[in-house]
């Protein structure tokens, strides 16, 4: 069994490896050199620069990268502005620019569909540089001075599916090169781009895999500002840092500010210069995240109960649902039903919502096909934001239910290997670690064990359970997070699980994913 697993992991790693040396040139990005030269020209003239970010983790981290970059150059004529989810809506807009503007405006993690804002900048004689990674609407781009986006058909960067922070990082990288700096990128900015890659659920393949591996290495070895602080606080027992530590412990904290209040709190945390400021903001982020969890669970239960459920699609809507948790609730509906899910709340006369899908369904293609029913939309193939008029919500469900969804090629997970408990040892852990970092399009190996006897059980924190399983030859400890039901001593079960190092005992441990 172990040899079969080793062969599977070796084959997969070979198929997703980044085989180039070092970092690709920043000037593979269309318009990046043009944008970098304009920014250098603006700095030489002491021109005021406005950076417009986004309120999710990728957008906040992109904003932090730009702030830290300009600070490293001791350039003080720069402001960072992140639209408030609840008051400003998503991304750069004419309304937002009427309140926040400058002669030179740079977007990070947004702007690719900001056609009205680009026209407004042209009328006001503002220079607009767009950096983004979201899908283009029908391959059209706004009329801006420069548009840097790997999804442009004429962009030669080596990977299309990268996060917004990586694009921002590369803009800084390009400016550094043109300025003739010896060190073209800092380890802190690299770490931030790696964290955003995980947080924004980019595929951990090819260059993304290389970047994340570097980021995890530096986070492990160096104390890097707020990221180092978070690493100590959130995963302080870890001997080795994994991508899952970022996605489960760190990314939700950064995301929580924009979901619940204002993303500026997370930006201030990432920019904190001392422990006292950092700790205060960290505590506020933790409180935001706890509130998010409570509201999310309530909305999910209501959505699951009252959704319109079709053969192909799920649509759920209610007037008072919290806008900040709609995307997570949609994701949980996809997990529960394996169907694309759209979740809306009613605000200012329209339904605002989030859509999520499984890896093989192209949501952008579907929304392009029903765009006449929508007031606006944008995002990725598996994750979109959208708005729809009050009278069109049912029509949207009916139209999507009859839509011929575009099916994408996607990574097929290997079926779980069957293990005996005696197989769970250090050798198995070493084989599993060959495939790190695990994440999107490189999922961790899952295993199954059948007819196990529960010999001990203990409930912790209301929804988790510590267990001891026994088969014919061996006893092993396990933990079952968010248990679908609590197991009882004496019963026999079959389980799906992963295997990880238990940092307390320094032994391999079963992490139960579901009952079979």
UniProtKB/TrEMBL annotation:
Q: Which terms does the UniProt entry file under GO BP?
A: DNA recombination; DNA repair
- Which segments constitute the RecJ OB domain? 418-507
DHHA1 domain: residues covered: 311-402
In the record, the note on similarity to other proteins reads:
Belongs to the RecJ family.
What is the protein name stated in its UniProt record?
Single-stranded-DNA-specific exonuclease RecJ
GO MF term (any one): nucleic acid binding
Q: According to the lineage, what is the superkingdom?
A: Bacteria
State the InterPro entries in the record. DDH_dom (IPR001667), DHH_sf (IPR038763), DHHA1_dom (IPR003156), RecJ (IPR004610), RecJ_OB (IPR041122), SSDNA_exonuclease_RecJ (IPR051673)
């Amino acid at each position: 069994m172990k040899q079969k697993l080793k062969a599977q992991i070796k084959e997969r790693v070979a198929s997703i490896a980044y085989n180039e040396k070092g970092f690709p040139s920043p000037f593979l990005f269309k318009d990046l050199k043009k944008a970098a030269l304009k920014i250098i020209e603006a700095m030489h003239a002491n021109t005021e620069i406005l950076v417009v970010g986004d309120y999710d983790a990728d957008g906040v981290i992109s904003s932090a990268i730009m702030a830290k970059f300009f600070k490293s150059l001791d350039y003080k004529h720069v402001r960072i502005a992140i639209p408030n989810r609840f008051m400003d809506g998503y991304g750069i807009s004419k309304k937002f620019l009427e309140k926040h503007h400058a002669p030179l405006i740079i977007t990070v993690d947004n702007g690719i569909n900001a056609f009205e804002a680009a026209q407004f900048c042209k009328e006001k004689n503002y220079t607009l540089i767009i950096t983004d990674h979201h899908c283009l609407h029908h391959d059209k781009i706004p009329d801006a001075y420069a548009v840097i986006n790997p999804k442009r058909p004429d962009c030669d960067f080596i990977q299309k599916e990268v996060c917004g922070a990586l694009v921002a990082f590369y803009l800084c990288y390009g400016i550094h090169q043109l300025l003739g700096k010896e060190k073209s990128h800092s380890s802190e900015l690299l770490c931030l781009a790696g964290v955003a890659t995980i947080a924004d659920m980019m595929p951990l393949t090819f260059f993304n895999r290389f970047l994340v591996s570097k980021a995890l290495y530096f986070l492990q070895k160096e104390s890097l500002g707020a990221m180092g602080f978070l690493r100590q606080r959130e995963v302080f027992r870890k001997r080795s840092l994994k991508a899952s530590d970022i996605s489960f412990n760190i990314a939700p904290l950064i995301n929580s500010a924009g979901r619940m209040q204002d993303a500026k709190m997370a930006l201030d945390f990432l920019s904190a210069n001392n422990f006292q400021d950092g700790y205060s903001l960290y505590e506020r982020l933790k409180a935001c995240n706890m509130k998010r969890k409570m509201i999310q669970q309530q909305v999910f239960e209501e959505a699951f109960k009252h959704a319109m459920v079709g053969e192909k699609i799920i649509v759920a809507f209610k007037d008072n649902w919290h806008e900040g948790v709609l995307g997570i609730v949609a994701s949980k509906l996809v997990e529960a039903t394996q169907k694309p899910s759209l979740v809306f709340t009613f605000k200012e006369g329209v339904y605002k919502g989030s859509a999520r899908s499984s890896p093989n369904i192209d949501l952008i293609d579907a929304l392009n096909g029903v765009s006449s029913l929508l007031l606006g939309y944008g995002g990725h193939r598996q994750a979109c934001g959208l708005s729809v008029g009050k009278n069109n919500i049912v029509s949207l469900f009916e139209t999507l239910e009859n839509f011929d969804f575009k099916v994408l090629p996607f990574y097929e997970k290997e079926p779980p290997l069957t293990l005996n408990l005696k197989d769970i040892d250090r050798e198995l852990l070493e084989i599993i670690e060959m495939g790190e970092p695990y994440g999107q399009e490189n999922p961790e190996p899952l295993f199954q064990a059948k007819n196990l006897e529960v010999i001990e059980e203990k409930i912790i924190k209301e929804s988790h359970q510590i267990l001891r399983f026994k088969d014919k030859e061996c006893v092993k400890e396990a933990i079952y997070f968010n248990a679908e039901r609590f197991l009882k001593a004496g019963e026999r079960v079959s389980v799906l699980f992963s295997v990880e190092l238990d940092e307390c005992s320094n032994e391999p441990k079963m992490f139960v994913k579901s009952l079979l």
